[in-house]
Amino acid sequence: MVNTVKRKLGINITNRYFKEIRAFDSSIITIASSLAPHLYLEGNLSGIKISTLLNLSQGIPERVQIVPGKINDRKCIDGFINDNECLYLSDRGYYSCSWYDKITDEGFKFITRQVPNASVEEVKSTYVEDDNIFDYEITLGTDYSRNKTKFALPSSLLSYYLFLFLSLYIF
């Protein structure tokens, strides 16, 4: 059934650089706090957070974790990033320079949207031989705030457009 839907929708997310493409995101489901006081979130609401790892190459969820709604998004995805041959996509709810350093140091590849006020320093740019598209190596953060990444991270407009396209469908 999944293959039929992928074929009808024209979903074909594969490439020669990565074994698979996976995306993860978290959503909060809220209810009245009187119904679940042990899951208190804020005000008169309680909630749970559902984090999902979706394999875009196969079109199916691979893993789901359910935790109380107050848990930070990055703490909900333990074990989601575990394959160095895959490309991981996430939204800006997972923003952390130290976390980017950790997963880069461990050899994982990822594309993420950045927070609007992120400080970015261009380290190097390379022409990609397509319509004015450049690949940039960047450093996130600043020395002043001590949240600067220690690695130069690749960032290209092509990757940004790929993620923007995918975010319309899955985030």
Automatic annotation (TrEMBL):
Coiled coil: none annotated. The chain crosses the membrane at residues 151-170. The keyword Glycoprotein does not apply. The keyword Transmembrane applies. One of its GO terms (biological process) is DNA transposition. Keywords: Membrane, Transmembrane, Transmembrane helix. Pfam families: DDE_Tnp_1 (PF01609). GO terms for molecular function: DNA binding; transposase activity. Residues 18-123 form the Transposase IS4-like domain. This is Transposase.
